[in-house]
Amino acid sequence: MMLKILYFASVREQLGQGSEELPLPAGVVDVAGLLGFLAQRGGAWEHLAEIRNLRQAVNQEMVGRDAPIGAEDEVAFFPPVTGG
Amino acid sequence: MTFPGPPDHESHDRFPLSRPLPREGGGEIRESLTRFPYMMVRVQEADFDVGAELAALRRDQPQIGALVSFVGVVRAASDDAGVSEMTLEHYPGMTEKALAAMVSEAGRRWKIIDAIVIHRVGRLLPGDQIVLVAVAGTHRGEAFAACEFLIDYLKTRAPFWKREVTPQGARWVAARASDDQVAERWQD
After folding, report:
1. The complex's ipTM?
2. B12-50, pLDDT tens digit by residue?
3. Which residues of chain A make contact with B164, given a CB cutoff of 8 A?
4. Which residues, in sequence order, are CB contacts of B53 under 8 Å at separation 6+?
């Protein structure tokens, strides 16, 4: 029962990490809560939630920060997309 | 000419994949997720042959009377600097699903017969092909509209990120507000 978190593009570079797995932190029920938990790590993590236009996906669907998170979900953080 | 019914939108997030995703270097969704007989989305490092892809799309579909395609190419210059190379990153799994959902949405909005999207990832050089969007229809009008919709949506919604190398160094390409405005034309 592990939460998987993915970081892409400039977000990945700022954090120096592309992915991680961890047990769902106590008290975290949504994306905003997860960002709050990650910010406690300090350094670049403190600024993750403040990245301009930060996008997030839960189980590969784009969502808002109020989206719920479960113990085995896949959460991703990334900047606005620039393909095509 | 009659058209089959609309795609089943409730199945978007759980359509069967023809092969496991993600795969190294990219992935492919290729099955009759909707009423489309051929329908394919593919993410790959390799280049693609536009002629061969269009021929495959048309094969055994004699009702097709119009085939509209868009090819995106790496420009040698960005806003203010020369670009010597570019690297495209994507979100394996989510990218393919997002592209497939866009194709389904195009099929809901327009009477098109079939569509494909191929997008490259990895290192690309100026002049290289990046993306192919092709839409087949009975007549050109709906095919043109659906093709434009697909590339507009792809640019603002599919998880791809460009990192370009210029004389000033490497940088992540910023999203353009103009792309968002163009895509908003298609909002219901």
Report:
1. 0.95
2. 333 333 333 444 456 777 654 557 888 899 999 999 999
3. none
4. B116, B118, B132, B134
A81 with B157: Cβ contact below 8 A: yes
Q: How far is A76 from chain B (nearest CA, A)?
A: 9
Per-chain mean pLDDT for chain B? 85
Which domains does chain A carry?
26-83 (3.10.20.30)
Structure tokens at B103: 């194709």
Structure tokens at A67: 């989206």
Q: What DSSP letter does each residue of chain B carry, written as one string?
A: ---PPPP-GGGGGGPPPSS-S--TT--EEES-SSS-SS-EEEEESS---HHHHHHHHHTT-TT--EEEEEEEE--SB-SSSB--EEEEEE-TTHHHHHHHHHHHHHHHHS-EEEEEEEEE-EEE-TT-EEEEEEEEESSHHHHHHHHHHHHHHHHHHS-EEEEEEETTEEEEPPPPHHHHHHHHTT--
Please list every residue in chain A whose beta carbon sits closer than 8 Å to the beta carbon of residue B157.
62, 81
DSSP state of B97: H
In single-letter form, the type of residue at position B83 comes to: V
